């Protein structure tokens, strides 16, 4: 890919990420912040499933970082396991946001344990519900208390 093409692809991914973030927030608003209800929102699932895996991976990583000082909502399933693992990586990280995300963020590949998990979840086309729930669990505490 040439440099202008790479830049255009990165810009397009960033734009889609912004729209997807709005979709996630609006779903939480529609469902009163209830992750269990938001994850079953058909419109949101279609938007999440149709998003580029790179955009989903970037959001998972960013939501993990921003949720690191919050407590995640209770849940007992694989989405919760992954959310807690990503949250734990971010909470234990001693560097700045730029170091956590990697120098090429949001471009792939995303190196490191948290980035590897975020990428793995995001590229799983068989179970988009799992990565969607993980994203919602990571976003929910920040959505409820953005100033904290």
Question: What features would you describe in this structure?
Answer:
This protein has helices at 3-30, 35-38, 42-50, 53-67, 78-92, 97-101, 113-122, 128-144. It is mainly alpha-helical. It has one domain (3-144). Helix 4 packs parallel to helix 8 and helix 5 runs antiparallel to helix 7 (113-122). The longest helix has 28 residues, at 3-30. The model has no long low-confidence stretch (mean pLDDT 83).
What are the key terms here?
148 residues, mainly alpha
Q: Which structural class matches the secondary elements?
A: mainly alpha
Number of domains: 1
- How much beta, percentage-wise? under 5%
Q: What is the terminal separation in angstroms?
A: 41 Å
**SSE arrangement, N to C:** HHHHHHHH
Question: What is the rounded Rg?
Answer: 14 Å
The outline comes out as globular
SS field, number of helical segments: 8
Q: What is the makeup of the main sheet?
A: none
Helix content range of the residues, please?
55-70%
Number of strands: 0
- Output mean pLDDT: 83
Q: Low-confidence spans: pLDDT under 50, at least 5 residues?
A: none
How would you summarize what this structure contains?
It is built from eight helices and no strands. It has 148 residues and is mainly α.
Secondary-structure map:
Layout: H1 3-30, H2 35-38, H3 42-50, H4 53-67, H5 78-92, H6 97-101, H7 113-122, H8 128-144
Helix pairs in contact: 1-4, 4-5, 4-7, 4-8, 5-7, 5-8
